[in-house]
Amino acid sequence: MVPPKKHSPTDRTQSWTPCPQLLGIVKRNPLMISRWVLRWMVLGTVCGLFAGLYWNILEWMIHILSQFKGLTVLIVMPLAGLIIGLVIHFLGNPGEIGVIVDNIHFRGGRLDARKNPAMILASLVSISTGGSAGPEAPLVQVTGSFGTWVADRWRLEGEDLRTISLAAMAAGFTALFGAPLGGAVFALEILHHQHVLEYYEALMPAIVSSCASYLVFATITHLGIAPTWHFPQYGLHNIDDFALAIAYGIIGAVAGWIFMAIFRSCDRIFAQLPIPIYFRTTIAGLALGIFAFFFPLTRYFGHEELDVILNENFPAIFLLTLAFAKMATISMTVTGGWRGGFIIPLFFTGACIGKAIALSIPGLNPALAMICTMAALNSAVTRTPVSTTLLLSKLTNITPFTPILFASLIGFFLAPKVPLIASQLKKQIPIGIERTGSQMESGKPSTD
């Protein structure tokens, strides 16, 4: 006898009340806590445990490898690039956000866990040695594929499987940023360049999973409880601040166009090199080492380096030069085959530009200039205006987040028509565009 199919509250084709079993649970439990809520919590807890373990290992590696400075980075970083290339060559190309978005759209949310060993090893080496990419993308991929594995164990299909994968992705992203609501929205918002929440039925599972992951990660690492960056105090007392937020949004959008042009130029250069992936990553490591020698603040993904920008007095021209250098290192990191995400690096870049503007024009509030430029730049590149606002409000402890929202929306609306993550278009596009777009963070090396 074929067992009857079990329907979940996330199935689009089923309503909540017609299911007798679920109706019975609701009647007996006025708090609406069902087995599905417990499943989402367990999923988030496991993702938080992995994220905490990953972060602790990463911190230990950074503590050791960050001691190599000066001329030694010209040796350490090319060597790290060789190791990354060999990992990818022998264990397979792990891909990143671009591939994840494709899988969510076209494979029903099924993410391949077989790529995780290559992703974990390559990203740990990439980030710990000083690549300009952060751990958010590796965490999202690994936890998302774990969600797919769990969904298979629970015999879920269709929208239910996609929902669990998205909830696990949100849990992985939330662990790093310490913002459960922002992480949940980001996991859904990153999937499309125009529709903010396409798979809206996954929002509540993503929020519940993110909350569980946040608590576990914060307990293990003690991160995410306090603000990550201590910005100068800012209070919204003047309607003119909204006009300034819009102006900063325009500047951030322009910076986004510049970054995407640099990124695609680096991508074309690497694509024209008919060499194995381990040569490609080694060349990228050498280029990153040269930038790190002349601009030490371009090394690493900006988690701690942004505090240096906040606390030190740098000339405006240096900050603008540093911002362009950071754009170049982010581009070379990702297109050169190194692994990691670039949300925090983009925040660092926006902070440099915003502070340079505040220094150049007396009377401007540096906190407003920095955070609005950060928001607009990230929104223009990743097409995530809502989650960017929520994340920055949490990371900086700036409570009047309405100006941040204005800047994020300006960056979103003024972004190029073709996004950098070409898979956000959710349709087949010309090869030339796909090469420069979806390869962003999808990590498609030209040769292997």
Automatic annotation (TrEMBL):
Keywords, in A-Z order: Membrane, Transmembrane, Transmembrane helix
Compartments (UniProt record): Membrane
Pfam family, one: Voltage_CLC
Predominant subcellular localization, coarse grouping: membrane
Membrane topology of the entry: Multi-pass membrane protein
Residues that span the membrane, as ranges: 37-58, 70-91, 164-191, 203-225, 245-263, 275-295, 315-335, 342-361, 398-415
Stated name of the protein: Chloride channel protein
